[in-house]
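Box 3.1 A note on notation
Throughout this textbook, protein chains are presented in two layers. The first layer is the amino acid sequence; the second is a token string describing backbone geometry. Keep the layers aligned when reading.
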Amino acid sequence: MTDRYPGYDVMAKRWTPSWNEQTRRVVDQRLAVLREPRFFSGAEWRTLNAVCARIMPQPKDRPPVPLPAYVDEKLHMRRLDGYRYAQLPPQDVAWRRGLAALDDESRAVHGAAFHTLASDQQDTLLGRMQRGELTSVAWGDMPCQLFFEHRVIPDITHAYYAHPLAWNEIGFGGPASPRGYVRMGLDRRDPWEAAADRGV
């Protein structure tokens, strides 16, 4: 990945007026998330890891954002979105059912668990999920397309962009507490924000 914000590290803001103690505490909690599952079973965890790797491939030149761990923690701590589509079950049920159904689809087509497949085979199955083409009885009454659009994509991408490594990639200064942001217009930047390398 090309570095659009060379030399930028959002963690350098830790002791500046940009972050207060509450902000530091929240960021520290995100960095300390357990890397082992507390909600998912071993089989679900392996499938989730494979799904996360295909939905949000990460640069090889730095440690990865622990996406499966963030999804697991959200479910373990019962952090709800505050809404859900009527055709989708609660998020914990949706994730368990969706991962089991994806594994069932994988075994039906390839005779092997999803996490063991080649990346192109995984992508094909995920693409079919996105288009609503998966039909295993393991889905029950949960539409696979809704699961993809309203659980898989949001939960994984929100997890990614909640981490300081992702903030570095997009030049984000982190939570706006207590300093906040002043220049909110298009293509405007506060002096304490990262400057993009326009040559990238």
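The CA atoms of residues 65 and 122 lie 20 Å apart. Residues 37-170 form one domain.
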